[in-house]
Specification:
The complex is a heterodimer. Chain A is α/β, with parallel strands linked by helices. Chain A is built from 9 helices and 10 strands. Chain A has 2 domains: 164 residues, 3-Layer(aba) Sandwich (Rossmann fold), CATH 3.40.50.300; 78 residues, no CATH class. In chain A, the strands form 2 sheets. In chain A, strands 6-7-8-3-9-10 form a 6-stranded mixed sheet, with helices on both faces. Chain A is globular. Chain B is mainly α. Chain B contains 18 helices and 4 strands. In chain B, a hairpin with a 7-residue loop joins strand 3 and strand 4. In chain B, helix 3 runs antiparallel to helix 9. Chain B is globular, with a radius of gyration of 25 Å. The chains are: A alpha/beta, B mainly alpha. Chains A and B meet through helix 2, helix 3, helix 4 and helix 5 of A and helix 1, helix 2, helix 10, helix 11 and helix 12 of B.
């Protein structure tokens, strides 16, 4: 199988504080890969490195074999990697429709055009509508994103993330702060929208992780403790000791 | 199915009816520009309307930065002023070299100059947003203004660069000597620029400008470079500011250093803000009001700039979305049967009038006090008598107690009475809301 995202001895320091301490990881194309670990393990930092938000202190990141270390976020996004954020990161005063449409535009090749009427771009309109239906928000299209409920904003966050048609999707705690039923609903949606793509997901809810993931990586204190299929992760003694034993019961 | 229909707000806008409705706005605007000189035929009115047209273009170009893309510029006059100088030089060159460029095409020179300087300065300043952008804009404005005092051959020193517009080759027999011909030249360019700037808001770039204003970081993760979005918006804003500056030079046949100055940059900020930056029409309303006030207020007071400042502060504090915001707040009552719309707004207007009377008394008292203080402090040598509002029939003796007491009583009494009428306005507003909800059910 081809590699979708490959990290080679990645390190990130903020001043003297080492957050990521030599992470090597190979995420295969088409797999659903979960990253778990205690708070402060560096999971979100890892996402920020992969998506270009932060520059790594050393090591390299490869996207389908191409070295993307040091590229800007939009350059990485144009190469087919898209991410969501742990803290909802949308366009609050724009409508739900506008939010999703902004995320569609580049993938349809319209770039910085200031001579085309946006409302007449049929492919953009159709794609935006398709995404809104996928995230079940077609009936909320005209609502300003800032007044949506929390769960709706999380759904919109995922909608923006997948709208550009990226085939590698990074989701940072998509179900955090959701009720049981909202979580089930969100997981069904994530399963649906990640069909046929590579998914890397940070998640605290072990039910979600073991349900969704093909493989799991356990990140503890900036290092990967183990990467394996869910059944083996569950029975891994090191993981039990470091993480699951404590966090699994809360 | 109705859900799907609702989910396609843009589809409904392309329907034939909406298209006619959309174009009808421009047809009405064109007709209005055409007949205005017949409604207000005096020379002073024509001059005022020329200035309004120029300010409308300038304020809308400013709003491409502030309202559309979230860039607070303190130096937008740079592009306006440099384009004015470029136009004046081009006119002089065309006259001297005998090149047949008629006057109506000169704003293209201004547009090009505005665009070029927008690209040059924009490539530096749009790398950052927020406070850093604002500070850089201020620095660039100072830089250009001080060069205008040094580079005398281009800026013409204190006299500026004058250019006789009538000496250019005629355009269909018009030499643009009479101001009315210049009015139509400005009106045509004004309408063209308004349409173009409106069209730009409805393009991929226009919408990404809004996205960058809202959340530049997220924009990076949907494939766009927010700096480049800002850069293009900035360059285009420079282009349209250039058209405005070019028309300003044509209008008074002169380009001066003050065109690139801080006061000019401040005026456009005020116009856009007073009109309201959240709506496309806002800067148009603001440009009209600010131009009118800056011409008319000086008929009534020497210290009109002070009142202008007070108006600006009042708007920022009590109506942060400006005039257009106030209008849009009332647009929500424009629903249901026509009769109920009119009666609803009529009742609200009645409440406003009740509150307006004490407000005016308060204002009159305050202005009387301010004017008397100004008279005593600045013009005591001219004697005790002051012409209030520059009207000789309103002569006030500042050395007697009564005007002072009267002003004070009017101000405080008016304020208290205004406070007293406020619940009437609040309840009228509440009633109008309830009424709208009832009739739209």
């Amino acid at each position: 199988m081809n590699s979708a995202v490959e990290l080679k001895s990645l390190e990130k320091r903020f001043g003297k504080t080492e957050i990521i301490r030599g992470v090597s990881l190979d995420v295969k194309s088409g797999e659903r890969h979960a990253v778990i670990g205690p708070n402060g393990a560096g999971k979100s930092t890892l996402f920020n490195l992969i998506s270009g938000r932060f520059m790594p202190s050393s090591g390299s990141i490869h996207l389908r074999g191409e070295n993307i270390t040091g590229l800007r976020p939009f350059e990485i996004n144009r190469r087919g990697l898209s991410r969501s954020f742990q803290v909802t990161n949308i366009f609050p005063r724009l409508s739900v429709w506008e939010n999703v449409r902004c995320a569609v535009l580049w993938s349809k090749g319209y770039k910085y055009s200031f001579w085309r009427n946006i409302d007449k771009l049929e492919d953009v309109r159709a794609r935006t509508q398709e995404i809104l239906e996928q995230i079940n928000m077609a009936n909320r299209a005209e609502v300003p994103a800032g007044v949506l409920s929390y769960a709706e904003q999380r759904a919109l966050e995922i909608g923006i993330t997948i709208a550009g048609g990226a085939d590698i999707i990074l989701l940072d705690e998509p179900t955090a702060g959701m009720s049981r039923s909202e979580t089930e609903y969100a997981v069904a949606m994530i399963r649906r929208v990640s069909e046929g793509r590579t998914l890397i997901i940070i998640e605290h809810d072990m039910g979600v992780v073991f349900d969704l993931a093909d493989r799991i990586s356990v990140l503890v204190y900036g290092q990967i403790l183990a990467t394996d299929v869910p059944a083996k992760i569950k029975s891994n003694a090191k993981v039990q000791e470091a993480y699951l034993g404590a966090a699994g019961h809360d | 199915m109705s859900d799907a229909a609702k989910a396609m707000p843009m589809a409904s806008e392309t329907s034939a009816r909406a298209r006619i409705k959309r174009y009808s706005v421009w047809i009405v605007a064109a007709a209005l520009l055409l007949v205005m000189p017949y409604i207000f035929p005096s020379g002073a009115s024509i001059t005022t309307m020329c200035l309004m047209g120029i300010m409308i273009i300038f304020a809308l170009s400013y709003n491409m930065l502030l309202g559309q893309s979230g860039m607070l510029s303190f130096g937008h006059a740079v592009y306006y002023g440099l384009a004015a100088f470029a136009t004046a030089h081009m006119m002089n060159w065309a006259i001297k070299a005998g090149v047949p460029i008629p006057l109506p095409f000169m704003p293209i020179v201004g547009a090009a100059a505005g665009l070029v300087f927008g690209i040059i300065f924009g490539s530096v300043s749009t790398r950052r947003a927020g406070t850093v952008f604002a500070m850089i804009s201020l620095g660039l404005a100072e830089l250009v203004y001080s060069s205008s005092l040094i580079l005398r051959s281009f800026f013409g020193g204190e006299e500026g660069i004058s250019a006789d517009r009538t000496k250019l080759v005629r355009f269909f027999g018009y030499n643009f000597g009479p101001q009315i011909q210049v009015y139509y030249l400005i009106a045509a360019w004004c309408l063209l620029c308004i349409i173009l700037m409106y069209a730009i808001t409805r393009t991929p770039l226009g919408r990404m400008c809004n996205a960058v204003r809202e959340n530049p970081e997220r924009v990076e993760f949907v494939g766009y470079n927010p700096q480049f979005v800002r850069f293009i918006a900035f360059s285009l804003a420079g282009l349209f500011a250039g058209v405005a500056g070019s028309l300003a030079a044509i209008n008074i046949e002169l380009a001066q250093a003050s065109f690139v100055g801080a006061a000019q940059s401040g005026a456009v900020l005020l116009a856009a803000y007073i009109g309201g930056v959240a709506f496309f029409v806002g800067p148009i309303l603001g440009a009209i009001l600010v131009t009118l006030l800056s011409i008319k207020l000086s008929d009534f007071s020497e210290i009109w700039v002070l009142y202008f400042g007070i108006l600006f502060i009042t708007i920022i504090m009590f109506a942060p979305y400006g005039l257009s915001g106030l209008l849009m707040m009332h647009a929500q009552f424009w629903r249901g049967p026509l009769g109920s719309r009119i009666s609803r707004l009529g009742k609200l207007l009645g409440a406003y009038l009740i509150a307006a009377l004490p407000a005016l008394i308060m204002l009159a008292g305050a202005i009387l006090l301010i004017e008397m203080i100004h008279h005593v402090a600045q013009k005591g040598a001219e004697g005790a008598n002051m012409h209030f509002l520059r009207r000789s029939y309103l002569t006030v003796n500042t050395h007697t107690a009564w005007p002072w007491i009267g002003g004070l009583v009017a101000m405080i009494g008016g304020f208290l009475a205004f406070r007293f009428t406020w619940p009437t306005v609040a309840s009228a507003w509440h009633q109008a809301l309830l009424d709208t909800q009832r009739s739209s059910k």
